[in-house]
Design a protein that fits this description.
The protein is α+β, with helices and mostly antiparallel strands. The protein contains four helices and 13 strands. Strands 3, 4, 5, 6 and 7 form a five-stranded antiparallel β-sheet that branches. Strands 8-11-12-13 form a four-stranded antiparallel β-sheet, with no helix packed on it. A hairpin with a 5-residue loop joins β5 and β6. The longest helix is centred in the N-terminal third of the chain and has 16 residues. The N terminus is likely disordered.
């Protein structure tokens, strides 16, 4: 009788400890908050990997908070909700080289020999998406075009042509703004201010 009771107890204990590893998700136990250290997308139609908040994102958000208190913050995967096929095709490969892609770019945008940042930003209501250009952390500009769903990167210093045949000689690096498989344009410094040139439609 004791042997039978021990077998039953062992069965109950092992059933309580079993996990169906085929259905377990590494993110099932994560509690996700928009501003937490990791962001997890739960939809099967959107990306499911974890985007870690980088030091550069924290740095840029700190500058934004200083320049525009409680107005803007850097966009992330949780906000963008990229479809998985779009993320896998356009973003995943580039993120291996730049963990902040497609939200933050770094370059010398106003040709002063100092590092500048460009960031896709969103307001608290999440109804306005803009580009913040942070020049040597001393000056901040919000570019007023709607850039929801865009990706940004640094355009090298080179001559760029637009869809109408116009060619612009960049004085420094530019900010490439791309709407995947739709359109693209570059923000560039003309010596006095930033201008925009369409590079694709």
């Amino acid at each position: 009788m004791r042997l039978f009771a021990c077998i039953i107890a062992a069965l109950f204990f092992s059933c309580g400890q079993s996990v169906d590893k085929g259905n377990a998700s590494p993110t099932d136990s994560l509690v996700t908050k928009p501003d937490s250290a990791t962001v997890v997308s739960s939809s099967k139609d959107t990306i499911s990997d974890i985007q870690k908040i980088t030091e550069l994102e924290i740095h840029v958000n700190t500058i934004l908070q200083t320049k525009f208190p409680n107005q803007w913050r850097v966009v992330n995967d949780s906000i963008s909700k990229w479809p998985k096929d779009v993320f896998d095709y356009f973003i995943a490969g580039k993120r291996k080289e730049n963990p902040d892609y497609p939200y933050i770019a770094k370059g010398d945008y106003n040709v002063d020999g100092k590092a500048d940042y460009a960031a896709l930003v969103v307001n608290d209501k999440r109804d306005k998406y803009r580009i913040a250009i942070l020049l040597d952390t001393t000056k901040a500009i919000i570019w007023e075009d709607d850039v929801q769903g865009a990706a940004i990167s640094t355009n090298p210093k080179e001559d760029i042509g637009n869809i109408d045949g116009k060619v612009v000689k960049l004085k420094g690096e530019g900010i490439n703004v791309e709407f995947f498989e739709k359109s693209s344009w570059v923000l560039y410094w003309d010596g006095l201010k930033f201008k925009k040139i369409w590079t694709g439609d």
